[in-house]
Amino acid sequence: MPLVEARGLTRTYRKGEQEIRPLDGLDLDIDAGRFVALMGPSGSGKSTLLNLLAGIDRPTAGSLVVDGVDLAALSRRELAEWRSRKVSIVFQLYNLVPVLTAYENVELPLLLHDLPRRERHARVVRALERAHIAHRHDHMPRQLSGGEEQRVAIARAIVTEPALLLADEPTGDLDRSSAESILDLLSSLHRDEGRTIVMVTHDPRAAERAQATLHLEKGRVAETIARTGAKESSRAPANTEAHA
């Protein structure tokens, strides 16, 4: 059973007298444990789809089922609760709280959960270690490089153990070396832990890390490129079956 099922997914906005339709009857299945890249020109619906998957926005029409839950059927309060438990997003510009340390930034989403302090601490330490940034746990974001900030952001995203990990241009603000390092981390989260990842990117080299690339145009999937061996790094391919 797919983790993500979209049928006739549509999102419209009003801009004055004009109706904007970034998603127009999109059909999509993403199986659990897949790494999928979304590409397409500006206005093709990539960011809109990511916001719908994150529960940040709501569809105008159609259905969107994520991990067995129809998001369109949830109230705003139910959607917020679902989002805190089931999905995490990594942003291009990190979105770290500047007055909190790396540790405190990673701990922040766990404060919404009823967890004993000891378990919360264990989860934060585990996430920081998984993202290879534990040695900077007591540093403020301004004391970190861009790549280090993104590692903290990824640790924050995985600390709640979400069913779906979303990444919105996660390497867009990084130099090539740091970008490759972040892509290595995302690839390892998928390969070693079976995490389901949906990543928006404009970078074909980043998309090559995914098992499948979905090209969106005019609010629909125009092309799907599946890879029999998604790239594990810029130097070594991984032997993973690829399909969305």
Strand order of the largest sheet: 6-7-8-3-9-10
Number of strands: 10
Order of helices and strands: EEEHEEHEHHHEHEHEE
Largest sheet: 6 strands, mixed
Structural class: alpha/beta
Instruction: Give the C-alpha Rg.
Output: 18 Å
The 3D shape can be described as: globular
Strand content: 25-35%
Quaternary arrangement of the chains shown?
A: single chain
Average predicted local confidence, pLDDT:
91
Which consecutive residue ranges, at least 5 long each, have pLDDT under 50? 232-243
Q: What is the terminal separation in angstroms?
A: 12 Å
Determine the number of helices (DSSP H or I, runs of at least 4 residues): 7
Approximate helicity band = 25-40%
How would you describe the overall organization of this protein?
The protein has helices spanning 46-53, 76-86, 102-107, 117-130, 146-158, 176-193, 204-207; strands at 2-15, 18-31, 35-39, 61-66, 69-70, 87-90, 164-168, 196-200, 212-217, 220-226. It has 244 residues and is of the alpha/beta class. Strand 9 and strand 10 form a beta hairpin. The strands form two sheets. The chain has a six-stranded mixed sheet, sandwiched between helices. A four-stranded antiparallel sheet has the order 2-1-4-5, covered by helices on one side. Residues 232-243 have low confidence and may be disordered. It is globular. 30% of the residues lie in helices and 28% in strands. It is built from seven helices and ten strands.
